[in-house]
């Protein structure tokens, strides 16, 4: 039996001695950019209820763990975090302060009520599709002291009801979730189960959000979705809009200078989207396209719906549309049944294609996914060895990609001050951080930079001559 709906002993936040004091919110985000986006939305949804963000968990009246379930022992990590939170909650209690704890995201979705029975410190469990309800749930827990679990689908309501972004500091680059969920059912992946089936926001909503961001100074937008290129939103013309059409429409917004999208499935790279890399100069020449394995046998067992050759042929077509395209990818090693020869095929594909960036993972069996039940699980030691070999190759590829940019000139979108005084930091079209001496007035602008060196994690350059700027005035100390 779980304790859902029953927790009569809990003291509530509304009983706090000083009702007028601002309430503090601490959000700990695990996982992907979609989760980071959801955390931002949660903070905004809770703002009208008087919650202000704090970095200090001991200072927080409400702690939200925004969890990720995709790899590793995600649930275990959450439970150990909850163990630490229980101590924080007890410590605050001795000072007469109450703490409400919410678990959000994919672990919340997957574990549901189980969380409250294993970790009674938790007051709210809320799945990714119910984030718009968080402020209401917090209010309900405050007044009733109940424990609430809300993990229902679907997503329509969530997007419709999430509040607009609150006014904040200058943000040059923003993420906008346009699609959620996935119908691909790769046999290793929990996403179709935790995030549900594919759902797209309407182009109208997305355009309105991006226009709002543009008026606030945003210059670059990255459209997010678990399977973003399967996007199909109901357009104002009554037609279903594919991603290419949405991107084309966003390209019409004058002050939006750069467009990106992530993450894509090779199967959904349609002709229009490929052509767009050639036609739409605002679409950056950089594509994250996971291939997972270079072995056709493993790809079939993963239910990836493509072969290694098809992946390469697709890359060749996109490169034909945009010759300066750089690629990023996701790769899994040690999928059940993967032999040395299968792994070699992965290394070969990496070497043939050449990636500017890549994310590589040891296969981790996710309960409830088909691959978790396969015999022939690869021993941990082999996975570790393969991952190390793959990462060495990928790192070489990344460094050589960076090095060949030295001596070239790149348009850099400046986002913030740099590490050193007088420096500003921006991003190249290929997402590398670029450090340059230059004035803060260039933040939010794109300027040509001559790349002079490539460090381990960023590029350094000098502003291309001919661009006028004045030395920043040093503030008096
Ligand atoms: N084990 C290892 N890696 C995984 N990924 C997804 N599920 C698993 C898993 N069970 C990786 C894939 C995916 C990325 C987001 O995470 O490479 O593209
Ligand atoms: Fe998971 Fe991506 Fe496969 Fe969908 S396409 S099941 S999100 S790995």
Short description:
The protein is α/β, with parallel strands linked by helices.
Protein model, in words:
There is one protein chain. By secondary structure, the chain is an alpha/beta fold. Helices cover 33% and strands 22% of the residues. The chain contains 14 helices and 21 strands. The chain has helices at residues 33-46, 74-94, 106-111, 113-118, 134-144, 156-161, 191-194, 203-215, 243-251, 271-279, 296-301, 308-321, 340-353, 380-403, and strands at 23-29, 51-53, 62-67, 100-105, 124-126, 148-150, 173-177, 179-180, 199-200, 220-224, 232-234, 240-242, 258-262, 286-288, 326-333, 357-362, 409-417, 423-427, 433-437, 446-454, 458-463. A six-stranded parallel β-sheet has the order 2-1-3-4-5-6, with helices on both faces. A five-stranded mixed β-barrel has the order 17-18-19-21-20. Helix 10 packs parallel to helix 12 and helix 13 packs parallel to helix 14 (380-403). The longest helix has 24 residues, at 380-403. Residues 1-20 and 468-477 have low confidence and may be disordered. The protein binds 5'-deoxyadenosine and iron/sulfur cluster. Iron/sulfur cluster binds at residues 182, 184-186, 189, 191-192, 226-227, 265.
